[in-house]
Amino acid sequence: MVLGGYHIPAWTYLELNPYVWLQSKEHFVEPEKFMPERWLRDTAGTSTINPYVLNPFSMGIRMCAGRRFAEQDIYIGLCRLLLKFRVEATSNDPPEQEWAVLLKPKTPLPVKFVKRE
Is 64 marked as binding a ligand? Predict the structure, then answer.
């Protein structure tokens, strides 16, 4: 197979590393800054981010059948957590990360949960 001008031999294992795209100025303004609001949709409900930049559940006919359930669980879990706790940063340094099939923190995240009263 030839992909982007590169010959890929049969049975070669390929992985797409979204971290490269997430750090790209081609796809994001100031990618090195922590800006969670960049993921919000506009008033029309559309996203300004290319949908192919981050697709942990794949896309098309081979998309994970459990995607909607997983996303719903994440949203409900986060809402329940944030109703009971405030999340505060304990450091302004970005956490170190490592690649182990998925990108994950190398050390515990520098946050603490403060119980809401």
Answer: yes
